[in-house]
Predict the structure.
Amino acid sequence: MSSDDIEVPKELREFMLKGAEETLLGQSNGAKRQFRYGNLHIREYDNKFLVHTDKIDPRKDPIGHLAYDAPEVIVGLACSILVGSKIMKKFLNDKKLNKSNVTATIISSIVAGYVGYITSKKIKKYLK
């Protein structure tokens, strides 16, 4: 649960806004289902709902949503692409491109992306 989430216990009230659409957009964070209603992002768990407001509805502007509401995804992708391309370029320049080097490049790219994502997510949380 982030500091922006509002928790609504199901025992208090089972609710769902009329017109809310079930969606796969957004991090589920272990939720059974997710819904969108305008800029509201609603996650349903066994015993509660967690609700927060996004600045931009990802169904209308996915790039804007990533930039303003989930920049850590962009940072993770950028780290992954940057590290992967640098390592691959080195192997190509050394003419040592083989299956194990391609595998090492892919793994390094994934690790770099994950580290960039987690680090920027922690920075985002710290700055709030």
The longest strand covers residues 48-53.
